[in-house]
Fold this protein.
Amino acid sequence: MTFDAIHRQLKPSIGLFCGKVSRRNVSQRKVMAINFNVRRENMFNFLKLSSKKAQASSDTRLQQARKARATLGDDFFGGWEEQDAALFAKYSAPSAPQQGKIIDYFGIRTSADLHPWASHMAGTVNASPPIPDDQLRAEAIEYFATLDALERAPAGSFTVAEFGASYAPWTCFSAVIAARSGRKDISVTAVEASKYLFSLIDGHLAENGISKDSIHVNLINGAVASEECTLYFPKVANAGENGGRTETHMVDVDYVGRAVDHEEVRGYRIADLLPQGVTDLVHVDIQGMEHIVLSSSMDVLNRQVRCIFIGTHSRKIEGELLELFHNNGWKLVRERPTAFHYVQDRQEITGWTTRDGGQYWVNPRIA
């Protein structure tokens, strides 16, 4: 309440006191004056109290914001919702620890050798849902996208393609969860450009009980591209070397300023990588090439893909993808922006990114 508002509330009493009461006896005037002063004092006390409460509320919100930022860091806009915890719990699988393995909330086993920076996690089981992330390699939005796509898929089947697969963690996760749900018709495709990382896929699938004898597995050492072509990908010597990007020609320094050697890799169009029929989920993580590649294949995506998760690698690309998929009639279900640090001497803004973003879209054309 403002001073003007107080004045408006007290004005009738002031008028009464200055007008009619002036004709009454002195004792009546004293009583009215006392009443007026009491009301005025109460109003000003109320104003002071309200002001203190407003200040306390402001301080509390500031403190809460500081705590949230300290806790969530660059996951401040995490792309997850509270109800995701219930979905994650539905597919959780309590597990016993294994030497040399990192076991997640869903019971997926990953060799600690695949994450050299996380050797301290070897022999551990993560009993917490991956919100805001799994403390190892991925954020909640990717887990949500995979499980949501599974629940949108037909009851007896699940078809997934992972582009930029590395050792194929999402291919493996999808296959394990689909099999656990009782589905019999399961098809997975993993495409990875690095010869070294590609060589790790079979082992990761095998230690989680996935083989070509149990489901349809299609593994391709190549790169997804806007057209069939020859591309160049940085040579990888160990599992810790992530973030490589395809180039159309040999370069001495990559997009983040690293000196690199390259190896030739075949580029495939999305149309040549997807199986016949509907693919329930496409997972894309191709280090800044996502808009170029996806925009060249919207016709096949519109026609054959139910859901798509896209790892994003710059704010510019995020905007381009939002416009692209929105204009093609897709529905955005989850989104989290990239985190980046401005580096003046890097010409490509993709090289500024410190934490990838993500977008999860659903195609209304495919029920």
